[in-house]
Fold this sequence. Notes:
By secondary structure, the protein is mainly α. The chain folds into three domains: 2-79; 116-180 and 274-295, Cytochrome c-like domain (Cytochrome Bc1 Complex, Chain D, domain 2); 184-273, Cytochrome c-like domain (Cytochrome Bc1 Complex, Chain D, domain 2, Orthogonal Bundle). 54% of the residues lie in helices and 7% in strands. A two-stranded antiparallel ribbon has the order 1-2. Strand 1 (42-47) and strand 2 form a beta hairpin. Helix 3 packs across helix 13 (282-295), helix 7 crosses helix 13 and helix 9 (195-208) crosses helix 12. The longest helix has 25 residues, at 7-31. 21% of the residues are buried. Belongs to the CcoP / FixP family. Heme c 1 binds at residues 142, 145-146, 273. Keywords: Cell inner membrane, Cell membrane, Electron transport, Heme, Hydrogen ion transport, Ion transport, Iron, Membrane, Metal-binding, Oxidoreductase, Repeat, Respiratory chain, Transmembrane, Transmembrane helix, Transport. C-type cytochrome. Part of the cbb3-type cytochrome c oxidase complex.
Amino acid sequence: MSDFFSSGWHWFIAAVSVAGLAFCIWLLFTSSKTTHMSDDGTTGHVWDEDLREMNNPLPRWWLGLFVITVVFSAIYLYLYPGLGQAEGSLKWSSEGQHQAEVDAAKAKTAPLYQRLAAMDAKALAADAEAMGIGQRLFLNNCATCHGSDAKGSKGFPNLTDGDWLWGGEFETIKQTITEGRIGQMPPMAAAVGTGEDQRNVAHYVLSLSGSAHDNLRAQLGKEKFAACAACHGSKGDGNTALGAPRLNDKIWLHGWGEQAIMAMIANGKHNQMPAQKATLAPEQIHVLAGYVWSLSNGGKR
Length: 301
């Protein structure tokens, strides 16, 4: 959007600001003077036969407030940015103030985070203060996708169970939060075969977790499942190195049943968790990872 603006706009804004202030000063002086009045104290203008226009001077308190407003505006424009690109004598900016507040907060909490950074996952999970901080970090940065209770929803993993796409070890969770994750399942229709083949494979996948399925179709789909075994394993155990989910439990991230599995086979799926390293400091990620780890390892919640 900035490509549509040039430095001329900054001069325009400065000119309008100065002109507005000059107009206020002119209005102040002109309004404080009385014009010629008739002997009866009016301007001589009459409406509706008996309505006469008076021209009394403005009250002094009103003029005083007007003067204060004009003087304040001039001082403000001198101290703070308001005239186009002019920085103002104080060199203030909203970005600078925000950064100063962030730096002050970091300096204040540095001793606390230094103590927490030396703790391992179990120690963090047993520390009430660490869990309180971790929970607030989670609610502010993770709850939008995973829910305030961390139980996720369709397409967003449940963090309170023991089922992990990329692994649930403390260091792995830290890496996941820091760098983010990209899960990519390619469309497998060409590798699996026809619509009937895909249906058979779907029933075989259902059979792996003991879900309701057609046994005959499952037997027919077992051979075709070989195209999926490279990522999910021959027994559907999954592969945390690839982020390939387990298929032999009853945890379904993108929906359960024949139609949901067939859609996954035909269309594939792309999932992404954004990296948080630009948002959170390493010591914050350390505490947050401890909180997430505790959710599935019996820690305090």
